[in-house]
Each structure stands twice: as C-alpha cells, then as structure tokens.
Amino acid sequence: MPQFAANLSMMYPELPFLDRFEAAAKDGFTAVEYLFPYAFPAAELAARLKANNLQQVLFNAPPGGTDAASIDAAWASNTRGTASIPGREAEFRTGVQMALAYADALNCPRIHLMAGLIGDGQTRITNLPTYIANLKWAAAEVAQAGRDVLIEPINTRDIPGFFLNRQDHAHEIIQAVGAPNLKVQMDLYHCQIVEGDVAMKIRQYLPTGRVGHFQIAGVPERHEPDIGEINYPYLFDVIDEVSKACGWQGWVGCEYKPRLGGQPGGTSAGLGWLPKMR
C-alpha cells in the first residue's frame, strides 16, 4: 500500500496545532504535511517532528504576504497564491525564499506553490506567461537546495476562479517550464470533482515522472476516504501497481476533514480505514 501522511491542517482540529504531531504519531503515521508553517518558529516545528519520529513531506509556500501576520491576513482575505498573478512577482519570490528557509529547517523535500485566483480583467491566457516565468525562477532557486516544487490543480467548487483546475493543463505547464524538479501535486479529490476517470489518469501520469505527491479525501464532502463515491482501495491498488512498474516512491497526503472533527478523539475514531489499507 502507499505511504500515508497526515495533513495536520485538516486532521485533529480538536487539538491545538502543535499537539497534532503527537496525535498523528500515536495513530501510526510516520509523516505529516500541512498548509502553512509560518505562524510557528521553524525550530519549534522541527522539535515536534523529531520528538515524534515524523517526517515533514510537504507544505505550501505563502499564499501571499511577506511575514507571518500578512500571510495569515492574505489567507483570511481569500488570497490563494501569487504564482500566476501579474504584478506580484516580488511577493512571490519573497514567499519562495521564506518557504525554502522552513524547508531547510524541517528537512522537507517538497514545497507547493499555489497558483492564485484569476482577477478581474484577467484570463488564464493573460496570466500564463507570469505563471511560467515564476515557476521557472522558483524551480531553479529550489533546485539549488535539492528540493522539488509542486503545482496543484484545484476544483472550481472549493476555490472558484483558481488558475489551475485540470491534470492535463498542469502537465502541459510543467513541460513548458522544463524543470525536472517541478512536479504535480495530484489530489484525487479535486481530480474526481473536475474530471473523473481517476484510475486512468494515475496510469497515464504517474509513469511520466511528473507526479510528485498524491492527496486524498472522500467525495463530495471531503471526509475520510472510506466515505463517499470514490473506491479508494481500488485506486490504492492502482497506485501500487503503477509505482512498482515505474519506481515511484512518494507519499499520499490525507487532506480531509474528519467527519467527527472537533469532537474529542474524533479524528482517531475515523481512522478505521487506515489499518485496512495497510
């Protein structure tokens, strides 16, 4: 079965963020991901990882802003990345440098660069040159540290107006950029909502070497992967089969909202699917 990482931004909402590392380890996870680390000192996060024998496998570059307070404000005001937005190139580069500093401290091999929302008077065509230029710069910068940068197609229901929505578009952009350390964050929840035919897309794209990370959640409510319309045991078998054939050794991030989240022990109570998958 694939390797599963707990997403601490969504899982264990019944606990303060820093306590979620221990909870994930107690539930058998050996790796974690989350949206943003910038509200906490990198040394504190690194200590939590070490104390609980966890790997950090992914986090996001800032969605906007240049310090912890402005990053929080940007997210709260619905800023969903700056990579594709003309005129915000300097802010994007500052964010990548911040992310790199945290990645070094946390020994994290992957950074997700959110594309952003298409603004008034803009289109995907008008913003594409900015996106490609920013990704070329970021990939080269992050490559010097031996890390990957990821882009993620996100569904239009959860984030209306997001620049990147489809797997084929993401792979076209990666080919246009031409950087070997730029990869796709293939979230099967988003893929199912926008496109469907998920198993065939795994078979199509995983052998290319352009998929850096998977994420999962049940569809449509974004709860545990054993709730909803997706047959995840089948998809995990597909990932296993294709991984063995092509040598892929990445992680599957559990980026879902626990059905009982917020209740004491609610996240752990919903993990009955995990031992079955293992």
How is this structure best described in words?
The protein is α/β, with parallel strands linked by helices. It has a single domain, classed as Alpha-Beta Barrel (TIM Barrel). It is built from eleven helices and eight strands. The protein has an eight-stranded parallel β-barrel with strand order 1-2-3-4-5-6-7-8, surrounded by five helices. Strand 1, helix 1 and strand 2 form a beta-alpha-beta unit. The longest helix has 20 residues. The N and C termini lie close together (6 Å). The mean pLDDT is 97.
Flag low-confidence runs.
Answer: none
Strand content: 5-15%
Q: What quaternary form is this?
A: single chain
CATH architecture: Alpha-Beta Barrel
Count of alpha and pi helical runs: 11
CATH topology (level 3) name:
TIM Barrel
Through-space gap between termini:
6 Å
Extended strand count: 8
Major sheet description: 8 strands, parallel, barrel
**Radius of gyration, in angstroms, nearest whole number:** 18 Å
CATH superfamily: Divalent-metal-dependent TIM barrel enzymes
Provide the helix percentage: 40-55%
| Secondary-structure class | alpha/beta
When the domains are counted, the total is: 1
